[in-house]
């Protein structure tokens, strides 16, 4: 069964108020009844004590009986043999007290009883009766007891009137509770509907939502969480759109990069097939096809490498090795490429600098950064510096090439990003994945990579690889 939240709130509020009022009414009635009965009992004991204080003289007993007659108060006196001595009758009466009660009176205890009787018209009457013992002033021996009784039917009449008044008050309170509950429920449901409407807007793609937050209760906290969620969704949507745009750009670049070498290879193959290439040019044609094929393989491998790193499929075989020897090998490998751009590679690294890393991945990181420097530097200087610190090995790779803007520096670690989109057919780094792979590999080493750059002045990449002890503690 579906029950709207508005009616749930109304029922809950009404139930709470009704339960509270019923409990209060019951407690109040019980307290009133007990208080009135206790007051009546104390009054009867007071009459009995006053009569005992006057030595139970017969004329005073008669006078008291006459005075209290209009209150329907009855007075009886019994001696130590449990025989009634006042009022005097021809037949000696005894009280209906049990032997247990009689012993209590003889021991000086007072008794308070109540019983039901009928009046002369046969109507039931509830009577309160108290017994008070009295003793000889000479030797303090038990001489008898006095009983004082009075009907308490008026108490029930008063309670009935009180119950009627409480019922009227209950009805009025319920009406007020319904009105207040309606206002309260409508207010709460209005706040929920506000959040619901905002949710519908977000579901339709409108993330420009800002719910009011007065910091009063959980609804306001929920509104704040909703605002944060909407902001996160908006940021995520923008990031998805940005990544999608980069993916499309990458696919276009990749298609362009693949089409060019494939067209070249296909043209050369057709030329060889139809003997259109002179004999002295065939070797050169084969070399061109090999270069273009390597270019395609490099493009595919870079994408596969990046995906493996992202999915934690790369296993690092870390070891401590001499960093200078590794860097010397890299500079030797890239010497020819640097000369083709008329760049000068210089290495400044002490002989005792060691690094704790995967050797092949370390070489890959350095080669990618240096090839990137060669790509964007012409007639310039490229410096490689290394130093040993207490808990890490630090390497700086700097150039005085074209440099980057602040926006480019923020985005260079992103996949498919190219700092210079005009260079789509450069010999190195055409996929825009080189630095993204470098960033992922450095993070796998629990290392850190930072870049400082200025347009027209060059860039400096600083890489930090933690020492073996430091890296182990980090894990």
How is the biggest beta sheet arranged? 5 strands, antiparallel
| Terminal residue distance | 55 Å
String of helices and strands: HHEEHEEEHHHEHEEHEEHHEEH
CATH class of the largest domain: Alpha Beta
- What is the C-alpha radius of gyration, as a whole number of Å? 52 Å
Discrete helix count = 11
Low-confidence stretches: 421-430
Structural class: alpha+beta
In terms of DSSP E residues, the strand content is: 15-25%
CATH architecture assignment name of the largest domain: 2-Layer Sandwich
Describe the strand arrangement of the main beta sheet, using strand numbers. Answer: 2-1-5-4-3
Specify the helix fraction band.
Answer: 55-70%
Number of domains: 3
* Number of DSSP-assigned strands: 12
Oligomer: single chain
Mean of the pLDDT scores? 83
Enzyme class: transferase
GO molecular function, one term: ATP binding
EC number: 2.7.13.3
GO cellular component, one term: plasma membrane
């Amino acid at each position: 069964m579906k029950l709207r939240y508005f009616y749930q709130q109304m029922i809950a509020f009404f139930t709470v108020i009704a339960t509270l009022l019923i409990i209060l009414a019951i407690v109040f009635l019980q307290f009133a009844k007990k208080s009135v009965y206790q007051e009546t009992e104390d009054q009867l004991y007071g009459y009995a004590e006053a009569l005992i204080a006057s030595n139970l003289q017969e004329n005073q007993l008669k006078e008291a009986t006459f005075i209290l007659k209009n209150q329907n108060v009855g007075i009886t006196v019994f001696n130590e043999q449990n025989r009634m001595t006042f009022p005097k009758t021809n037949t000696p009466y005894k009280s209906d007290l049990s032997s247990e009660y009689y012993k209590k009176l003889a021991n000086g205890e007072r008794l308070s009883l109540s019983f039901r009787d009928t009046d002369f018209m046969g109507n039931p009457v509830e009577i309160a009766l108290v017994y008070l013992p009295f003793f000889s002033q000479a030797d303090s021996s038990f001489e008898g007891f006095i009983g004082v009784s009075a009907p308490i039917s008026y108490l029930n009449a008063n309670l009935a009137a009180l119950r009627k008044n409480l019922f009227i008050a209950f009805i009025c309170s319920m009406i007020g509770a319904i009105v207040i509950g309606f206002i309260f429920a409508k207010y709460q449901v209005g706040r929920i509907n506000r959040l619901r409407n905002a949710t519908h807007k977000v579901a339709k793609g409108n993330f420009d939502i800002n719910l009011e937050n007065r910091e009063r209760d959980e609804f306001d906290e929920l509104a704040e969480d909703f605002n944060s969620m909407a902001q996160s969704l908006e940021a995520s949507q923008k990031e998805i759109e940005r990544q999608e745009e980069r993916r499309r750009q990458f696919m276009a670049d990749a298609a362009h990069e693949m089409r060019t070498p494939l067209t070249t290879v296909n043209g050369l193959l057709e030329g060889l097939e139809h003997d259109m290439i002179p004999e002295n040019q065939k070797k050169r044609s084969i070399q061109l096809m090999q270069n273009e094929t390597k270019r395609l393989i490099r493009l595919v491998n870079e994408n596969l490498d990046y995906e493996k790193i992202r999915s934690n499929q790369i296993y690092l075989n870390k070891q401590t090795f001499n960093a200078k020897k590794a860097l010397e090998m890299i500079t030797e490998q890239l010497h020819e490429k640097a000369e083709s751009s008329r760049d000068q590679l210089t290495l400044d690294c002490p002989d005792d600098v060691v690094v704790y890393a995967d050797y092949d991945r370390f070489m890959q990181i350095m080669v990618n950064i240096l090839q990137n420097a060669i790509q964007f530097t012409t007639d310039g200087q490229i410096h490689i510096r290394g130093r040993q610190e207490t808990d890490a090995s630090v390497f700086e790779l700097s150039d005085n090439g074209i440099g980057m803007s602040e926006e480019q520096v923020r985005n260079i670690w992103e996949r498919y990003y190219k700092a210079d989109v005009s260079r789509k057919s450069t010999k190195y780094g055409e996929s825009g994945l080189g630095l993204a792979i470098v960033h992922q590999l450095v993070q796998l080493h629990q290392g850190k990579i930072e870049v400082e750059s200025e347009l027209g002045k060059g860039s400096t990449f600083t890489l930090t690889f933690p020492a073996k002890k430091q890296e182990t503690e980090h894990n």
